[in-house]
Amino acid sequence: MINVLFVCLGNICRSPMGEAVLRNKIKNRGLESQILVDSAGTGDWHIGHQPHEGTRKLLDERGISYEGMVARQVTSQDFIEFDYVICMDQSNLTNLRKLIGGDEATIVSFMDLLPSETLREVPDPYYTGNFEEVYALMDAGCAVLLDKIVSEKL
């Protein structure tokens, strides 16, 4: 089983959207028994909460399930259990590096999956309100990520 973890600040907007979008792509390719996806936040403000209303609305409109998803905080154990840790921005990358005590773990910046994009961080729709922009990035980046996982691990 290949394990993928998306990480953002509060685990209610970007990382659960990435989790849901990648799960949907995995399901569409019949790979559910081979790839597990989760998400977490570097902060603890929203632990136990559903994804943000804007994320839920957007996913509902596209028929993408977020059933059972609740926010949790990232732990040091995640760096042992997950093959891919996908980080949404530089601030969270810095926080993750502090958590693991250095650069030992392999963490992928989400925007590195989309090198032709001018953005280098996934904007936080909690502040911008632009869930459509984030969805477009997640849709494109998760397609690249899934191809990467299949080619590297399956």
TrEMBL record:
Family matches, as SUPFAM superfamilies: Phosphotyrosine protein phosphatases I
Q: Which domain of life is it from?
A: Bacteria
Q: Which Pfam families match?
A: LMWPc
- Domain Phosphotyrosine protein phosphatase I, which positions? 2-148
Is Transmembrane tagged as a keyword? no
Residues of the signal sequence? none
SMART domains, A to Z:
LMWPc
Instruction: Supply the EC number(s).
Output: 3.1.3.48
This enzyme catalyses: O-phospho-L-tyrosyl-[protein] + H2O = L-tyrosyl-[protein] + phosphate
Residues at the catalytic site: 8, 14, 124
List the molecular function annotations (GO) for this entry: protein tyrosine phosphatase activity
Q: Could you tell me the keywords of this UniProt record?
A: Hydrolase, Protein phosphatase
Query: Of which family is this protein a member?
Result: Belongs to the low molecular weight phosphotyrosine protein phosphatase family.
Annotated protein name in UniProt: protein-tyrosine-phosphatase
The upper taxonomy is: Bacteria, Bacillati, Bacillota, Bacilli, Bacillales
